Amino acid sequence: HSVEKGNFQWSAPSNIALVKYWGKKDNQIPANPSVSFTLNNCKTITKLAFTKKENDGTFSFDLLFEGQPKEDFKPKIQKFLERIAIYLPFLKDYHFTIDTENTFPHSSGIASSASGMAALAMNLMSLEKVLNPEMTEEYFYQKASLLARLGSGSACRSVKGQVVVWGNHANISGSSNLFGVEFPNVIHTNFKNFQDTILLVDKGEKQVSSTVGHDLMHNHPFAERRFAQAHENLDHLISIFENGNLEEFIKIVESEALTLHAMMMTSMPYFILMKPNTLEIINAIWKFRNETKIPVCFTLDAGANVHVLYPENVAETVLQFIKNELVGYCQNGQYICDEIGNGAVLI
Ligand code: PMV
Fold first, then answer.
1. 214 CA → ligand 1 middle, Å
2. Which of 11, 64, 174, 332 stands 20 to 30 A from 184 (CA)?
3. Which of ligand 1's atoms lies nearest the C-alpha of 113?
4. Ligand 1 neighbour 331 (Cβ under 6 A)
5. Low-confidence ranges of the chain (pLDDT < 70)
6. Residue 290: is it exposed, middle or buried by C-beta count within 10 angstroms (0-12/13-18/19+)?
7. How far is the CA of 14 from the centre of ligand 1 (A)?
8. How far, in whole angstroms, is CA 54 from its chain's centroid?
9. Where do the domains of the chain lie, and which CATH numbers do they carry?
């Protein structure tokens, strides 16, 4: 099959890891398995227009961000195309216009790499499917996740499913280092419509990129123990997703967040991505939880922002608490209400 020109548009969400991916081997192979909730509102929407060109051995593309040319993102995309070219042999036969926008505020400190790379991977797979229409839906999503992984590791968890595992794990059938898979078992109703309110503590550019952070896990004094711990924590979560035990869920999730940052603090060179207000928020959440017994907890990405996680049935009370006591710690009082979602969508 062949096609001269056309376009697709996909949205892909961000995701928040419960068991964190931190440390990798060559080719974006994770040092340990991770699991995340797919988000619903924090998304990248990307339109891919393609026109057939002569294959002169180079990639040709224009990049627009919110409709405006965006030169500084181009090297990242160029590198991505080089990495995935062996999987998509048609890439040099087309000129692409990639037009992308995020639903969350620009430079809010929310990483758009997961949603952005996933949205682009979905579009490229749509073209691949036009050229090879006989592929199954399972193959389509698996390969999309594999491509997204090569753009940004955690992006492979933004393709399909509400709870997504990436990385080989003995007790999760179908799990793979190469792509994310939907958590295969039935999940307890306590996690239905689970809420994630993202408190924007610091919107500045990260001082240390996650690429550098992953690299610092090589020769890290605690690396092997940490990687083993991630396997254990994922094992725990398998039972927690089945029995709905929120007290145990909180222990694993908060410990994972603090361990991620502990790895940063104990690498060489060492660094700290939390800000004073990150700690103020964590302490306020602990105090509130102690006093009310409401099962609300926090997790962190590689940054200062805090994700506040809680079940839907306590949403009203927790949101009131966030407005009364936590918003003051956010930059310009900004926060984003999100919840568990289903993955990428063709628009
Ligand atoms: O996908 P990357 O290379 O940006 O790494 C992201 C790592 C964390 O967000 C800190 C953890 C995770 O599993 O998402």
1. 9
2. 11
3. 4
4. no
5. 106-109, 205
6. exposed
7. 11
8. 36
9. 5-187 (3.30.230.10), 194-339 (3.30.70.890)
